[in-house]
Automatic annotation (TrEMBL):
The keyword DNA-binding does not apply. The lineage of its organism: Eukaryota, Fungi, Dikarya, Ascomycota, Pezizomycotina. Belongs to the DSD1 family. SMART domains: D-ser_dehydrat (SM01119). It comes from Discina gigas. This is D-serine dehydratase-like domain-containing protein.
């Protein structure tokens, strides 16, 4: 028995109750900068639309929490009658969900990166603390599986998904590759050897390159490619496990990213979309396949997502659909210093607060909204101001005018709201979000790691080390992890 002192887990987060005491009821313009602001109405709308749309489509939905890492937004993503399935990209995100796991709102956590062996004890400790929780893991290499088998704790079982590479070459195996078949064979052997304590649940695709999509049909092409790859994988799995499509064993194909998920989810709104029709039909082909969509940044949206143009006119997404903005303050002004002869200004948000990716359609590292800069911004819909973040350093950004004179008047000390290119990266630079209402008053503070989670973690968890030594697992012979291994069928 080994004790993992949770003092080892140092979570650098201000206390959420302290933040609330200090900031609830304040107006946005009175906040320090840089801070991340969330417009609660827009968030709720984005979350509800995705829930309604996936329900109408009859498809499962597994929101990703990496964008925000907060319990509050996870709750909105799951809705009042969600099935409690989420994806995380770090163990820390899973641990941050402890208050929702305790409540039974989160029931099933998929660790969305091929399993690093060092995370197994922490995930296993989480499972030991919440025995009814399901923790699913991704694998794309036999060694991850062997590490999991090596660390098996009595009473725990682990659904696994094979991560499929959809061409982005970030993670996963190509479904047509020898490596995929080898992995499938090893999983089958292992499943038998550990009596189902580790079992293949399905296949996970994430076409991250869908961020470069342009239009609804281009997103659907990627989505259909994911579905096809998933179905091919299920076909191979049926053969490997000796099952037919009529078998009671169910396979899950988990697919999506925000551009493709938006395209899929809203297919019912666009019955004329050929790819959409194909997808809706293709999804329903086999009784033993369950399709679920996963997505994360749809909650907040950002300039990158607007650029994908997956929603066709007249419903295309606009800046009014972006729930996140970064509040920054003008530090200095440089009249006429711009390349186009326009003015420039220094603000308090740089790469750390805004992200590292410049945009194409919306140029720069962020776009300044007209909030507080023109009289219309008080009552009208959010609009661009004519200022963009044209250059960036670690803690500061340089505002430039899109065209000379387009930006309007700035003053030192003026606060500006900037829409980021990529909400997940921008948000993670801040640690907590100020959640504001339609009057720009702070209604809540959502911290990435709440006191409730921290209190829980201060209880020292005892990590059982009753690992079953390999030689004691009945009939276990370590599979040969050599790629290209020829499986012997008896
Ligand atoms: C593995 C994985 N799955 C799902 C998602 C969710 O994608 P998105 O934020 O585009 O909705 C991500 C995001 O990067 C991811 O890395």
């Amino acid at each position: 028995m080994t004790t993992i002192p949770f003092s080892e887990n140092i979570y650098p987060a201000a206390s959420d109750s302290h933040l609330r005491d200090r900031f609830l009821g304040k107006r946005v313009e009175d906040l320090p900068t840089p801070v991340a602001i969330l417009d609660e109405r827009v968030l709720r709308r984005n979350c509800e639309l995705m829930l309604q749309a996936t329900k109408a489509l009859g498809i499962g939905f597994r929101p990703h929490v990496k964008t925000h890492k907060t319990t509050q937004l996870t709750r909105l993503q799951l809705g009042p009658d969600g099935d409690g399935k989420v994806v995380v990209s770090t163990v820390r995100e899973a641990e941050a969900l402890i208050p929702l796991i305790k409540e039974g709102v989160v029931k099933d956590v998929l660790y969305g990166l091929p399993l690093p062996p060092s995370t197994i004890p922490r995930l296993s400790a989480l499972l030991a603390s919440f025995p009814s929780l399901i923790i699913s893991v991704l694998v794309d290499h036999p060694s991850q599986l062997l590490a999991l088998v090596d660390s098996l704790v009595p009473g725990q079982s682990w659904p696994i998904f094979i991560k499929l590479d959809m061409g982005s070459r970030r993670a996963g195996v190509d479904v047509e590759s020898e490596a995929f078949k080898t992995l499938l064979g090893i999983i089958r052997d292992t499943e038998l050897e550990v009596a189902g304590k580790v079992f293949l649940k399905g296949f996970y695709c994430h076409a991250g390159h869908s961020y470069a999509a342009s239009g609804t049909n281009s997103a659907f092409k990627l989505l259909n490619a994911e579905l096809e790859a998933g179905k091919r994988a299920v076909g191979f799995a049926r053969t490997e496990f000796g099952l037919s499509a009529a078998s009671s064993r169910e396979w899950t194909i988990s697919l999506g990213a925000t551009p493709t998920a938006i395209a899929a989810a809203f297919v019912s709104t666009y019955p004329e979309s050929e790819n959409g029709r194909d997808f809706a039909t293709a999804m329903k082909v086999y009784a033993d396949i369950k399709v679920e969509l996963h997505a994360g940044v749809y909650t907040m949206l950002d300039l990158q997502q607007l650029s994908t143009r997956v929603m066709p006119p007249p419903n295309e997404l606009g800046v009014g659909d972006i729930a996140i903005s970064i509040l920054a303050e003008v530090v200095s002004i440089y009249p006429g210093r711009g390349e186009n002869g326009g003015d420039e200004a220094l603000v308090t948000a740089g790469t750390v607060g805004l992200g590292r990716e410049p945009g194409k359609e919306w140029a720069g590292w962020g776009v300044v909204s007209n909030w507080g800069l023109d009289s219309e911004s008080v009552s009208g819909a959010a609009k661009e101001s004519g200022w963009i973040v044209g250059r960036i350093s670690q803690e500061h950004g340089i505002l430039t005018e899109k065209e000379k004179g387009a930006g309007g008047k700035l003053e030192v000390g003026k606060k500006v709201k900037i829409w980021p290119q990529h909400a997940c990266i921008a948000g993670s630079g801040h640690g907590w979000y100020f959640v504001v209402d339609e009057n720009d008053v702070v209604k809540d503070v959502w911290a990435e790691f709440t006191e409730d989670s921290q209190n829980y973690l201060q209880v020292e968890w005892e990590l059982p080390r009753h690992y079953i030594p390999l030689n004691e697992v009945k009939g276990y012979a370590p599979p040969d992890p050599t790629p290209g291994r020829q499986k012997q069928h008896s």
